[in-house]
Amino acid sequence: MGHLTQRNLNTTRERLRDQVAHHLRAALISGELRPGEVYSAPGLADDFGISATPVREAMLDLAREGLVEPVRNKGFRVTEVNERDLDQYTEIRTLIEVPMVGRITRTAAHADLEELRPIAQEIVRAARDHDLIGYLEADRRFHLSLLALAGNDRLVETVGDLRKRSRLYGLTALDERDQLIPSAEEHLELLDLMVAGDAEGAQKCMTRHLGHVRSLWAEGTQEPESTPGGLKARLKSR
Q: Can you list the alpha helix ranges (DSSP code H) found in 177-237?
């Protein structure tokens, strides 16, 4: 199929399904798998260089999350997210994450906050290096690890689900124009404010950051170019 960039998969059977699901989510977010298009499990399996069974199982997991929908006798269609959906996801995240950042700033130990700095630096480094998958993964880990400091596992799950559903279509085009770097650097700014104990400043920064992310959704309208060649023989076990 030639749509997916190189991934590394752990081929142990008990983890393969989760590994495939993770990489498919990343491809959905980056826009390599495009909204409205139908993809077959055998076709994607050929790209990954594995059997169709774990891919089909992973796609069913994504269907339960609302990221794709089954198409009888054809495969799975990537669900489309409209502007209203994106606005609502942003509103919910703002209602949750902004006050939580203030609360965490007031209650978290400085050492716990500083443990997130390497992840924030990783986000910036990945953006500058045009490592899109690395950027997305580090961004996810930063936000969810930060919220985890509040001690509410259900809250972390909720925001994680919202992040999956509000994926950044067209992110590849933005990356090519270096438009992800300012958003990446906001993670370090947020962390500095929190370490300094500036709860109000941290909340304002998070509000601005989520608005910045929403503007990236609006700007990321160019369709990404397909990656030449499939994944077969290019994936290496970890």
A: 181-195, 199-219
Measure the CA–CA gap between 164 and 155, rounded to whole angstroms: 14
CA distance 3 to 11: 21
- Give the model's confidence band at 83: pLDDT under 50 very low, under 70 low, under 90 confident, else very high: confident
Instruction: State how far the Cα of 211 lies from the Cα of 42, in Å rounded to an integer.
Output: 39
Q: Which amino acid is at 189?
A: E
Note whether 138 and 131 are within 8 A (CB).
no
Distance CA 75, CA 1 (A): 14
Across the chain, mean pLDDT equals 83
| Contact between 102 and 200 (Cβ < 8 Å) | yes
Q: Where are the beta strands (DSSP E) in the chain?
A: 38-39, 68-71, 75-78
Domains and CATH numbers, the chain: 13-78 (1.10.10.10), 83-219 (1.20.120.530)
pLDDT in tens, 51-78: 999 999 999 999 988 889 999 999 999 9
Better-scored residue on pLDDT, 130 or 132 = 130
What is the C-alpha to C-alpha distance for residues 49 and 119, in angstroms, rounded to an integer? 31
Compute the radius of gyration of the chain from its Cα atoms.
18
pLDDT of residue 230: 37
Check residue 71 and give left, alpha or beta (phi > 0: left; psi -120 to 50: alpha).
Answer: beta
